[in-house]
Amino acid sequence: MASQLELHDVTVRYGDFTAARNVSLTLEQGQIGCLLGPSGCGKTTLLRAIAGFEPIASGEIRLHGNQMASGSYSLQPERRRVGMVFQDFALFPHLNVRRNVAFGLASLDRSERRQRVDELLKLVDLAGYAESWPHELSGGQQQRVALARAMAPKPDILLLDEPFSSLDSELREQLAGEVRDLLKRNNVTAILVTHDQHEAFAMADQVTLLQSGEVAQTDTPYNLYHNPASEFVARFIGPGSIIAVTPDENGDLGHGLGTLQTSQRRWQPGESLKLLVRPDDVQYTEDSALRLPVVGRAFRGAEYLYELELPDGQRIYALTPSHINLPVGSTLPVEFRLQHMVVFSR
Fold this sequence. Notes:
Layout: E1 5-14, E2 17-27, E3 32-36, H1 43-51, E4 58-63, E5 66-70, E6 73-74, E7 82-85, H2 97-101, H3 110-123, H4 139-151, E8 157-161, H5 169-185, E9 190-194, H6 197-203, E10 206-211, E11 214-219, H7 221-226, H8 231-236, E12 241-245, E13 273-277, E14 282-284, E15 291-299, E16 303-309, E17 315-321, E18 331-336, E19 343-345
Parallel strand pairs: 3-9, 3-10, 7-8, 8-9
Antiparallel strand pairs: 1-2, 1-4, 4-5, 5-6, 10-11, 12-13, 13-19, 14-18, 15-16, 15-18, 16-17
């Protein structure tokens, strides 16, 4: 059975500049994917190629088993059965909420169109706002109107281009979770573009992290955080430090960091490696014999983020409850509990 969305070695070029190179990914029916990465990594270019707004130089895009694009063919955007939610929502200011949502339903008769709009407004909790104007709505409400409008024609896939970027940071993650619940309840396949990992983690089942137009790693949010495939992924996904370590013949890394597995060994005793240490790998333990100097700290409300110095001068971070209030220059008793030992060759 064909997947809902398939990209096979897709390359997009603008003249001599390659914006995306050999990108492959697959989404199943009802799955939510995400194209994540820094500015200029090619994520929006790929979304526009899926929608049909950009031709591809090579590779293939398939939707529900049907070819949408190749290096020599491109189906018109209006024939792709793709819904799109734009960064600025792109609501029509001269149309009320009902007419905005109904905009793509011209093929239905009047009663069917009204029934579909009422159904969608109820779905996005805006049933009482049908006659309101876009400027009368909050940012979150406008975002839900844009979502309802994109879902109205029952597209095969929903594309969301930085849909929360114009909202304040506190509202973004909340809305991402709400949109995820809405899409999951309706078994809608969707793909989100964002540079914000918190949005990606709140919404997506599968995240494709891009680096300079190429796929750095495609995985679940959990695996991207705990099992990054490269230093780029480790640094982009979540806070953490990458420190130099040298295992002995038993795999012991010293400093209380722990021991590498000696079975299926991929390292040599005395080899210089890099170890990923996340703040949640460093546990505050009141009676620990290992006490590290505090060289920096940041108050985060419920937590303190401490910067600690190892005996060899390298620095790591630790999270503690905010009632553990220690000044710079003191020592913090900690234990290392690296559940996922991630090392990179130097």
